[in-house]
UniProtKB/TrEMBL annotation:
Pfam families: HTH_3. It comes from the Bacteria. This is Helix-turn-helix transcriptional regulator. InterPro entries: Cro/C1-type_HTH, Lambda_DNA-bd_dom_sf. Signal peptide: none annotated. Gene3D superfamilies: lambda repressor-like DNA-binding domains. It comes from Splendidivirga corallicola. Residues 4-58 form the HTH cro/C1-type domain.
């Protein structure tokens, strides 16, 4: 699970802008935002860089720690 949607909303950034910066289709970014798909680690790091946040800020820790 990821927090891309929350980070985008908190920064006032549209999914279309992120898709353009990431070089992915809107549909792909939307599937990340809706947690229907998870980005690859490489894409996750790129998204974090684009949004100027830590990769940890984009992740939801599982209950129970592991």
């Amino acid at each position: 699970m990821n927090r891309i949607k929350e980070v985008l909303e908190s920064k006032g950034i549209k999914q279309t802008w992120l898709a353009e910066k990431l070089g992915k289709s809107y549909n792909m970014v939307n599937s990340y935002v809706q947690n229907r798909r998870q980005p690859s680690l490489e894409d996750l790091y790129t998204i974090a860089e684009i949004l100027e946040v830590s990769v940890k800020d984009l992740l939801i820790e599982k209950e129970g720690g592991k």
